Structures are given as C-alpha cells and as structure tokens.
Amino acid sequence: MNTKDFKITPQDAMSQFWQWWDWGIVLVALFRSVEVPASVALKFLPSSASLEFAINLTTCLLLLLDIPLRFLRPAQTARGTLHGNPARLHYLRTYFLFDLIGSLPWGFTSNHFFTQDNWSVPISFLCLLRLARVAAFSQNFVRKPSRFFIARRLTVFLLWIALVIHLLACGWIAVGGVTHGLTPGHTYIRALYWSVTTVSTTGFGDITPKTEPQMIYTMLAMILGAGLYATVVANVASLIARADSARAAFDSKIERLNTFMKYKNMPEPLQKRILGYHEYLWQTGLGHDHETLLEDLSPGLRRSVGVFLNRHIMEQIPMLRGADAAVLHRLISGVTSVVYTPGDTILHHGEPGDTMYLINRGEVEVVDPKQGVVATLGGGDYFGELALLDPDRPRLADVRAKTFCALSVIDRETFTMVLEQFPEFAAHVRKVAATRIAESDLRAGQI
How far apart are CA 172 and CA 184, in angstroms? Predict the structure, then answer.
C-alpha cells in the first residue's frame, strides 16, 4: 500500500483537534451543569484558595475560550460546511447567546451576591444554557455511523435522565424539602431519593411537601416525571425492538418458509437443506437485502462500495493484476453474488460457459470425470475464467461446493464490454488468454 494513504494533511489534523476540543467542552459543560446547581442548593461556599474554587474558575475560562474559537472554525449545517463570515454569522444566530450566558460564573455570583436572596438558585441555573451545545453534540454523536448505534443512543438517553433527576434533587433542596441539620451528603442523598421516586411515579410518601412552594414544585415534578417515565418506556421499547428487528424479520421469513414447505409436502432432507441455507445467510450476514440498502446511493457511491467489497478478490486474478482502477470499477459494477450449499454442482463438465467465479468464502472441489477430485479451492481463489477467455471452450470439469460458498460472478457480457472500452487491457487479456488456454490444453492432453 502506498505510504501516501497514511499521510495526515493539516486539514485532517485541525479537524481532529476540533473533535477533541468539542469532547472536552462537552465534559466541562456537563460538569458545571452538575456541580453549580448542587453547590448553590447546598450553600457550599468554597474559599478563594480552595481546589473547588480553582476548578470552577478553570471551567469558566475554558468555556469562555471556546466562544472566540468558534469564530475561527467551520460550521457544520444541514446544507453543508460553512467557512469564514457565513460560519461566524451562523454561530451568532444559533448558539452564541447560549454559550456566552452559560459560560459566565453564575455559581460564584449567586453564592456571593445573592446569599440572602431567593434568586440564588434560579440564577445559578443559567449555566444550564450551555446544555444547548451539549444537546447538539450528543445528537451528532448518536447519528454517526457505528455498529454500536443502539448502545450510543441508550447511553445518551440515560445521561440526560440522570441529569434531570440531579437537577430536580437540587431544586427540592432549594425549596426546603429536606430536613435541616443534616450534612450536605445526607441532604443530597435524601433529595436524590425523593427525585427518583417522583420521576419514576412510585412516590412512597415518606418525603412529602409541607409548604406551598414545595407543593407547587412537587406538582411540577410529578408532571415532568410522568412525561419522562412515558418517554423512557417508549424509547427503551423502541431501542429493544430495533436491536432485534433483523432477527425478528429473519424468524418471520423462516416461519413463512416452514408453512410453505409443509403445505407443499416437501421431503425432510430438502427442508433441512433449505433451512440450512437460510441459517447460513443469517449467520454470515449475506441474507440482508444489500441491493435495497444501496439503491438510494448515487452511482459513484455504489461503485465505491462494490470496489471495497470485491477489489481484494479481483487483485488475485492474474489477468486483472495491475489493471487500471477504471477497469476494476467497470468490472466490479457488473459483479453479482451467489451462495451455494454443500453438494451443489456449480459447473458441469462439457457444458458451454459464460461466467467465471471468485470465491469470497467457503471451499469448492474441482472434479474430473476420470480422476475424481483433482483440486480444492478456497477463499481468494477463482475458477471458470476460460469461459471468458475462449467463448467456444466447454467446461473442462465439474466444480462442486464442499461447504457453504459465497461467490462473486462475472459474466461474459460485462467482460466483453470492458474489453471494448479499454483496448490496452484487452491486449493484456489476449496474452494471458493464450497462456492459460495452452496450459489448459496441456493438462487435458495429460489426462
């Protein structure tokens, strides 16, 4: 492989920096969303020399530093990437005010300037405006292609639920819902217990509101909890159903197939072969309807997918080794896939041929009518190429599937079209064909 494939451009390095920076800012914003409301509700006043104060100051400075940096970077929108002034205007119209207000040291301000005022907790909650950026980041994080899509979505969902429960607990402390005289740790645990039981709609009744502000707050928390509980149930059920949707579709297909085979009174061995075939497709992932999945892609993207899936096989064929990328692209666009079960005869001796086969997975046996099995071919091997090189030549042997086999097929029509479009490649193929045909005739004479 060419070393330039591993070269990191300045643009790539900058993009990677922004990705790490975004992760850092999200973690800082989440930390402040947890720490600031808790410290204000518990009336925890860190001294100017404490580690707590240093951490708060550092997080504020990082969030404030993020704002001018936003003006220097591209902006990702639904319509594409914006650069320069359009990117800056987009930021000003969307997240700028949220970021600016949410980055100010509201915890320090409310604790030191509103200590005797009921506005201390509401003012501290202004730091939550930074969560608008966290929400956008988490949405993009979930949407990124990944085999762990469901796990990602569930993790983000549970994180938001935990944050809501924490904020409700801080609010309950602020309205005096917890008995005075307890340590901050015991106070928070009792408030968290009330928050969890309220949100989960269980409400054991051992912690109840006593004042009108507490009653109003409890009613609002109950309404929020009922909606949140319904959302949790619906989303978790949806995620579980989505996680097993492919298996459910496969089971439904097998059920219909069983009904059909019993209705037609098919013999038991044939039924087992059919079911084994479908089980193999499921286990290997070959049973998915790839054509349907890819049909919405542009022609260029479909070709790129085809090249990715088949290039390593194509490069094993001598007559294609060293071929231009355009030749491989054109050939691969005409490749089809097929699966054979153990014992299936793929090629019959003496019949005319118009296809060659590339083995992606499994093993086949080459069977000579006189000598029996003369060769066993496996993944990365190919056979039947003489049908493309010499149209008048019949198949020289039987080829039988030894195991389940996933094969790629190139037909003569596609191959001939490529030869017509690429004269230099056609000249190379003619040389290879002459050699292969001579070798084949020699082997036939020895037999």
Answer: 13
CA atoms within 13 A on the CB side of 144: 10
The pLDDT of 412-416, averaged and rounded, is 85
Q: How far apart are the C-alpha atoms of 107 and 421, rounded to whole Å?
A: 71
In angstroms, rounded to a whole number, what is the distance separating the alpha carbons of residues 160 and 156?
6
Task: Tell me the C-alpha distance between 402 and 376, whole Å.
Answer: 8
Indicate the helix (H) or strand (E) that contains 75.
Answer: strand 75-77
Answer yes or no: are the C-beta atoms of 35 and 43 closer than 8 Å: no
Contacts of 414 (CB under 8 A, 6+ apart): 331, 334, 335
Percent above pLDDT 70 for the chain: 82
Gap between the Cα atoms of 39 and 46, Å rounded: 9
pLDDT digits (tens, 9 = 90+) for 24-49: 999 999 998 888 888 877 775 444 44
Task: Give dist(CA 142, CA 397) in Å, integer.
Answer: 53
Residues 416-440: pLDDT tens digits? 888 888 888 888 777 777 776 666 6
* Nearest of 151, 130, 116 to residue 22 by alpha carbon: 130
